[in-house]
Specification:
Blueprint lengths: L7 H8 L3 E6 L1 H8 L5 H5 L9 E4 L5 E4 L5 E4 L7 H14 L9 E5 L2 E5 L14 H7 L11 H12 L12 E9 L5 H17 L14 E9 L5 H15 L4 E6 L17 H10 L54 H17 L8 H38 L5 H10 L24 H14 L3 H17 L3 H17 L9 H14 L3 H17 L3 H10 L6 H16 L6 H17 L3 H15 L5 H17 L3 H13 L6 H21 L12 E2 L5 E4 L10 E3 L11 H18 L14 E2 L10 E3 L4 E8 L6 E16 L7 E2 L10 E3 L2 E6 L4 E10 L3 E15 L14 E3 L2 E13 L11 H5 L12 E3 L5 E6 L4 E3 L2 E11 L5 E7 L6 E2 L23 E3 L9 E5 L14 E3 L6 E2 L4 E9 L5 E13 L8 E13 L2 E9 L12 E10 L7 E13 L2 E6 L8 E3 L4 E10 L7 E7 L3 E3 L6 H26 L8 H10 E16 L2 E15 L4 E2 L29 H5 L2 E6 L3 E4 L7 E11 L5 E6 ...
Parallel strand pairs: 1-4, 1-7, 7-8, 8-9, 14-24, 26-36, 49-58
Antiparallel strand pairs: 2-3, 5-6, 10-15, 11-13, 11-15, 12-25, 15-20, 16-17, 16-19, 16-21, 18-20, 21-23, 21-24, 22-23, 25-27, 27-34, 27-46, 28-32, 28-33, 28-35, 29-34, 30-44, 31-43, 35-36, 37-38, 37-47, 38-42, 39-41, 39-43, 39-45, 40-42, 45-46, 48-50, 50-54, 51-53, 51-56, 52-54, 55-58, 56-57
Helix pairs in contact: 4-6, 9-10, 11-13, 13-14, 14-15, 15-16, 16-17, 17-18, 18-19, 19-20, 20-21, 21-22, 22-23, 22-24, 23-24
Length: about 1450
């Protein structure tokens, strides 16, 4: 049980005190009423004696009475009605609430710190923010007891309001005060009248109430004298007369009202009456119409003892009506309007507290009243009680025939044989048995009660024990239960505790009262006493069981209070049972609610919530929160109600959909009521739906127009695209590349990459830039955690805007705050947004900024409502639904907001950031609105999705300026510039539009003369015409706009040639269009537009080519530099694309140094056709050019009727782009190799010259046509492949070969040596220094009969291929590789010198005359001379590779 202010002994002593009746004359009553008090109320604060009192027991032993209290009451002749008592108890509990502002009582139980609210109700609400702080303040002790003043008030009021009954005498009147005023004409006569009146009330059969202890009631005569108005001498003389008549011990002169009203107005006199009168105010209400009590079907059982309670008139004093008398004769009130009751009570409390009590009394008067009570008790009451006890004792001894007194006989009774007590079940229901008033059993009980009232507990116990036996023998169960109850209490209260507390006595008494006598009031008194006693002995478990046992359906208020006390028992155990505490608090709260005690119900639920909260008992939490919400709403604590319902909704509820729907409707209803109280206040935060703030995406710009027919819009960026960090990085690099080119190789420090869509992965550390008059789309991710759909209406963004003029001299000058209206920023609202159960759904909300400045997007604002579905509404007609578009709302919606608060990324750069938790800013919701900028839209016309590798296709690009300001500096940048071209300066010569016919090609063509077949047709072009070699980045391409400007609203179409990538598969090719405004802006310098083209390429031709030196040293022009080019073409198309065959229509070369001269193809076919998997070999002769170094020479060898001008667009464009990409690739490789070398990286110039001997700068373009059958139509596709030949003898391919991965080897750790390697040419490069050629007759006739030796002249031509001076050594000695070579070729001898040493200057050709000697006929290989070469300053000689590869055969014939 909860801690009480009094000890259990004090509580019991104060519960059973001697009762004294007060009978006043009207004049006396008038005197006391001057102080707004009746006589009984006047003396009530002074009724406790401050000193010990002595009296003698029947054995003449001195007995000390401590702390005695008496009760003085006005005589009331009608017992209170049960309904009135219930009303009184209801009001007492209702008025007693936890005090506001006090420090909370906290019980520490196990892991729980429970706030047992002596604070306000708010403090015990679990989400109340200060309750933890309260616990921290109370750290001086781990244990704080909890008090429940409402229970103590209830208990006190319950015990005081118990009607007197005949089976016990504890609440019978012992004495009666007769009070008369000294100002009356004949006070003595008045005393006589009052005495007669008292006698009539006690002894007349008309009055059954009140009850009197003994027939000879003590009468005490009190003369009341008003000091301020009365005559003191008269009062004294009357008092003297009274003393002579009634004796000095039976009368008293009480002087009051000493205070004069006009004197000492400022003097502060204490008011001891207020604490008592607060309770009596409730009791003395005249009218009960406005008060209501919850009453169940069964009424409380009160004792009537079978006596007729009919009232009869005849008394002059109006004491025939009890203050608890109800105006309703029935006494059963079942109205439920508690609000009126509590408000009336509050009013009465206010009026009561405003009325001064004892205004005419001084402190001296207080002492006089205190002295009067002392005198009455010492001289009147106690001697009377002592005398009565002796008389009763003597009567009992004489009647029973017992020797000596009961007091001495007690031991004999207890030490003798005991009569076994019968169990309750064996006893008959004889509760109706009545004893006559003079029955000896009742006299024993009367004596016991008198002893108990004067704290003589040992004698009282003896008497109760004796009476109990007698009653049980007579089976008078009501009497027996009363004796058992008081015997148990007396045994407990005996000083020194000679015997243990007989709890079984109480158990029997409670069971008898409840089950046999059906008297719940007496059973309740038993429980209240016994529980308090058990609690004092720390038997909390037994006390709790006792309290719980008495809870029943007949009284909700009693059940609630007892359950609450049981809960406190559980928490006060040695091992606190916290969950039992919480469970019983819930039960108590439920019963409080049924009893109409809303505040107490709310308090109980809040206390229980402290245990259930956060333990995963979600259904219990939901129930508690729901109840807290409802009770708070009833009590008009709307904030608490909203908080409670909010908790039900935001936790992951496990409730069924119907219940969740009910919770949601309750929340909306409560919330609506709360917002109506402050309609002009700020919009409150709504708990639903959940918003995943970090998933918020912000998109800047218009939605792209969809494709129209053949037009395909640039993909750009949209909210439907998934974020890809790799792709994002590629776009950033492309933008940096073009900005670097624009700014002459450097990126400005204030450069900010354009981000169209900001999300959780993007870099949001800088303020994003948006353009005025262009929409900002915010995608908000909503999640509905409930199993019922939510309907959001009028959903829009909440923002704050600060206008600034960025074009002013001072960057960002504020224009002035202004107001946030639609003139500055337009807001788009979504009329209806339905989120189904447990669905995550995104809403895209738009803002339209109309001014420059700083925009801050704060959150979203919307009306939250529920959708009317299959779930029926609680008590609401389903027809009351609003037709809202396609959804039917249930008509209940509330407006509120939710903020978008995004936490930035965690910082982890510095040591301080790593050791602490710090987050960077996330500014995606704070865009800066800049001045107007141009806006480009790009459309692609006839853009293919599938190409053959190397296929050329012509498409058109349309550029549209959809803004109000002109754009310029339009460029496009791509990682794959070889994929497309806008054409060079010669692009105007190409056909305007391609078609499927053969005559209209994407190339520039001319009809050829049949005689010129297989010989080269020459043309030249500068790389500058095609944007190559100008020093810029090859990836950044200028778009050739007419006049370089695109005006507002204008559009232009430009041709674009596409070439399928050389590798098959799906290719994603990114285009970034860059453009600027004519007017320079401070914030935004440029804009970009993105497009990703997806091209699927299929295999076409695979081409390999090799170039090698020709043996013929001279060509038609007499120069000694020519080469042979071998081209191997294979059709690797798998015919899946419907390709029938490929035709090689032209082979072109383009180089600064070499050109194709003619085809040396042996085949007589004019056209080269390749069906699937066929291969063709082509051979061409290449010679050195004569033209200047700047221009490229284009040589076309035509196989068909039309020559494709390879030096014009688009053939030359793609050639130059492939050249630049090839150069870039090799440059990157050489750069990486060079970076690994040491500081001495510069090659010797001579070494470079040697290397250039084996290098050849020859590029081949193979042009082809493919015949495709598609939908029974034949199409002709065109294309070209490029091969770059760099090294003599090294095979080159039309696309890079995939290198096989090397086998995995064991990992080796070594330290790289940094010793620089001297740069020197490779043996392969040195072997190409000298080109050799043997000139001799193919067959030689000689007559061996005439001359046995045959001498043949042979000329050895030596050509220095390099520009350096070379030392050459010719060795003519035979060095056969094997014996087979001798057998096959035979042996011959060189005549003359066997070694020659020569020095050749750069490009020098030297002729050496040799003679070969043969001895017989045969075929001989003259290629035996070995030629070695070295640079002048080198030592090592290298053999040339020319002779070994090609045999020089001669036939010697005999004539």
């Amino acid at each position: 049980m909860a801690q009480c202010v009094q000890s259990v002994q004090e509580f019991i002593q104060d519960s059973f005190v001697p009762l004294v009746a007060a009978l006043c004359s009207e004049e006396a009553e008038r005197l006391t009423r001057r102080n707004n008090l009746s006589f009984a109320e006047l003396v009530r604060p002074f009724c406790r004696l401050t000193s010990e009192v002595h009296m003698r027991d029947p054995n003449n032993q001195l007995h000390i009475i401590k702390n005695l209290k008496i009760a003085v009451n006005n005589i009331i002749t009608h017992p209170p009605q049960p309904g009135a008592i219930r009303k009184l108890l209801h009001d007492v509990v209702s008025v007693s609430q936890p005090a506001e502002g006090l420090v909370a009582n906290v019980i520490t139980a196990g892991d729980y710190d429970l706030n047992i609210s002596d604070r306000s109700v708010k403090a015990s609400v679990p989400w109340y923010s200060n309750w933890k702080e309260t616990l921290m303040e109370l750290n001086t002790s781990t244990f704080y007891s909890a008090t429940t003043p409402w229970f103590e008030s209830y208990r006190e009021c319950f015990l005081q309001s118990m009607p007197a009954s005949d089976h016990e005498f504890l609440n019978h009147y012992v004495a009666c005060m007769l009070v008369v005023s000294s100002s009356e004409p004949d006070p003595v006569e008045q005393f006589l009248k009052l005495s007669q009146e008292q006698h009539r009330i006690q002894h007349s059969s008309e009055y059954s109430y009140p009850k009197w202890f003994i027939p000879n009631t003590l009468k005490y005569y009190v003369l009341l004298h008003d000091v301020s108005t009365g005559e003191e001498q008269r009062a004294d003389s009357i008092y003297e007369e009274m003393k002579q008549r009634y004796g000095t011990q039976g009368c008293y002169l009480l002087k009051i009202n000493s205070r004069v009203s006009n004197r000492g107005a400022d003097e502060q006199i204490p008011d001891p009456w207020s604490q008592y009168l607060q309770k009596s105010t409730i009791q003395n209400q005249d009218s009960y119409e406005d008060y209501t009590v919850v009453s169940n079907k069964n009424t409380d059982h009160l004792i009537s003892d079978g006596i007729d309670n009919e009232i009869k008139d005849g008394l002059s004093n109006n004491f025939k009506t009890h203050p608890l008398q109800l105006d309703h004769p029935s006494g059963s009130l079942d109205s439920t309007d508690y609000m009126k009751a509590s408000t009336s009570l509050q009013d009465s409390k206010k009026s009561n507290s405003g009325t001064p009590h004892g205004a005419c009394l001084t402190l001296t008067d207080h002492d006089r009243i205190r002295q009067f009570i002392q005198e009455f008790t010492f001289r009147g009451l106690l001697p009377h009680i002592e005398k009565t006890i002796r008389q009763l004792n003597d009567q009992l001894i004489s009647r029973k025939g017992l020797s000596r007194s009961l007091f001495t006989a007690t031991k004999k009774w207890f030490s003798g044989s005991k009569v076994p007590e019968k169990s309750i079940n064996e006893l008959k229901n004889t509760s109706g048995l009545l004893y006559p008033p003079e029955a000896p059993e009742l006299q024993i009980r009367k004596m016991a009660d008198l002893c108990f009232l004067v704290q003589h507990y040992e004698l009282a116990y003896s008497c109760y024990h004796t009476a109990k036996k007698d009653f049980l023998n007579d089976q008078a169960m009501l009497y027996a239960a009363g004796a058992l109850e008081m015997a148990a209490v007396s045994a407990f209260l005996q000083p020194g505790a000679p015997r243990p507390y007989p709890a079984h006595y109480m158990e029997t008494a409670i069971q008898t009262y409840r089950d046999i006598c059906k008297n719940m009031v007496l059973a309740e008194r038993c429980v209240l006493l016994s529980a308090e006693i058990l609690k004092s002995q720390s038997k909390y478990s037994e006390a709790a069981a006792l309290l719980i046992r008495l809870t029943s359906e007949d009284s909700d208020l009693r059940s609630a209070l007892l359950l609450e006390q049981a809960a406190h028992c559980f928490i006060n155990m040695k091992s606190p049972m916290v969950r039992k505490f919480a469970f019983h608090m819930i039960l108590a709260g439920h019963r409080f609610s049924k009893a109409g005690q809303k505040k107490h119900a709310l308090r109980c639920y809040c206390q229980a919530m402290q245990v259930y909260k956060g333990k995963g008992w979600s259904l219990a939490e939901d129930h508690i929160n729901f109840t807290i919400g409802r009770q708070s709403f009833t009590l008009r604590q709307l904030d608490n109600a909203v908080s409670a319902f909010r908790h039900i909704l935001i936790n992951d509820s496990k409730q069924p959909p119907a219940q969740q729907g009910a919770f949601l409707r309750e929340y909306l209803y409560v919330y609506k009521n709360a917002t109506q109280l402050s309609p002009d206040g700020p919009l409150p935060q709504l708990p639903l739906p959940y918003i995943n703030s970090s998933a918020t995406r912000v998109f800047f710009g218009h939605d792209r127009r969809p494709a129209e027919g053949e037009k395909q819009a640039a993909t750009h960026v949209s909210l439907d695209q998934e974020y890809d960090s790799e792709s994002s990085q590629q776009w950033k690099e492309l933008e940096e590349q073009v900005v670097s080119v624009i700014n002459k190789g450097t990126i400005p420090p204030n450069f900010q990459p354009t981000q169209f869509c900001l999300n959780r992965y993007s870099d949001n550390s800088k303020f994003p830039l948006a353009v005025v008059e262009e929409p900002i789309t915010v995608e908000v991710s909503f999640r509905n955690p409930l199993k019922v759909p939510l309907l959001l209406t009028d959903l829009s963004l909440l923002w704050k805007f600060q206008p600034k003029d960025f074009s002013a001299k001072h960057d960002g000058e504020t224009k002035g705050q202004g107001t946030c209206d639609e003139d500055m920023v337009g807001t788009e609202a979504i009329a209806e947004f339905l989120i189904n159960s447990e669905e995550t759904k995104v809403a895209r909300l738009k803002l339209f900024p109309h001014q420059t400045g700083e925009l801050h997007i704060l959150g979203v604002v919307y009306n939250l409502g529920s959708v009317q579905g299959a779930v029926s509404l609680d008590g609401i007609d389903p027809s009351i639904g609003l037709q809202a578009g396609k959804f039917v709302s249930n008509g209940l919606s509330v407006r509120g907001r939710q903020d978008l608060e995004i936490q930035g990324p965690r910082l982890n750069n510095t040591k301080e950031e790593k050791t602490s938790i710090k987050y960077g800013p996330d500014r995606r919701l704070d865009p800066i609105i800049t001045e107007e900028m141009p806006l480009l839209e790009v459309f692609f016309i006839n853009f293919p999705t599938g190409l053959l590798c190397g296929e050329i296709r012509k498409a058109y690009v349309e550029f549209v300026n959809v803004s109000k300001c002109p754009l310029t500096a339009l460029k496009v940048v791509s990682k794959h510039p070889e994929f497309f071209t806008f054409g060079g300066n010669t692009a105007v010569l190409t056909p305007l539009s391609p078609s499927a016919s053969e005559n209209c090609s994407a190339y520039k063509t001319v009809v050829t003369d049949p005689t010129s077949v297989r010989t080269a047709l020459l043309s030249s072009a500068s790389s500058a015409d095609f944007g190559v070699g100008t020093g810029g980045s090859p990836e950044v391409i200028q778009v050739p706009l007419p006049d370089a400007v695109l005006l507002p609203g204008a559009s232009v179409q430009l041709p674009m040639w596409l070439r399928g990538p050389d590798e098959e598969g799906v290719h994603e090719i990114n285009f970034l269009f860059y453009y600027e405004s004519i007017k320079k802006h401070s914030k935004m310098c440029h804009r970009v537009l993105r497009h990703t083209a997806v091209i699927c390429t299929s295999r076409s031709l695979h081409i390999r080519a090799t170039v090698c030196r020709s043996n013929a040293l001279g060509d038609e022009e007499g120069r000694g530099d020519n080469m042979l080019l071998f081209v191997d073409v294979e059709n690797i198309n798998t015919s899946e694309t419907g390709v029938k065959e490929f035709h090689i229509v032209q082979v072109s070369s383009n180089s600064k140094h070499w050109k194709l001269q003619k085809s040396v193809n042996i085949s007589g076919d004019k056209d080269t056709k390749l069906a699937s998997r066929e291969r063709a070999k082509l051979c061409f002769k290449a010679v050195r050019c004569k033209n200047s170094e700047e221009n490229y020479t284009f040589a076309d060898i035509v196989f068909g009727n039309e020559q494709i001008i390879s030096s014009a667009s688009p053939c030359a464009d793609f050639f130059f782009q492939s050249l630049s990409s090839e150069y870039k690739r090799t440059h990157v490789q050489s750069h990486t190799h060079a970076s690994q070398r040491a500081v001495k990286q510069s090659f010797d110039e001579i070494v470079r010259l040697i290397q250039r001997c084996s290098e050849v700068d020859l590029n081949i373009v193979i042009l082809w046509k493919a015949y495709v059958v598609e939908d029974s139509k034949q199409l002709i596709l065109e294309g070209q492949h490029h091969i770059a030949l760099n090294t003599i003898g090294k095979e080159a391919f039309s696309f890079p070969q995939k290198q096989e991965l090397p086998e995995t080897v064991l990992l080796k750790f070594f330290r790289p040596e940094n010793t620089p390697v001297p740069a020197r040419p490779t043996p392969e490069q040195l072997s190409n220094l000298i080109k050799t050629s043997l000139h001799y007759p193919e067959s030689f006739n000689h007559s061996f009969h005439q001359k046995s030796l045959c001498l043949v002249p042979v000329t050895l031509l030596l050509s220095n291929c390099s520009q350096a001076v070379v030392d050459v050594m010719i060795d003519l000695r035979h060095k056969p590789t094997s014996s087979e070579a001798l057998e096959i070729h035979g042996s011959f001898t060189w005549l003359g010198q066997t070694q020659y040493k020569l020095q050749l200057k750069g490009q020098e050709v030297y002729s050496l005359q040799l003679k070969a000697c043969f001895v017989h006929t045969g075929v001989y290989n003259l290629g035996t001379p070995r030629v070695f070469a070295k640079l002048v300053d080198q030592v090592t000689l290298f053999e040339t590779s020319q002779q070994n590869s090609m045999p020089a055969l001669i036939i010697i014939n005999n004539i």
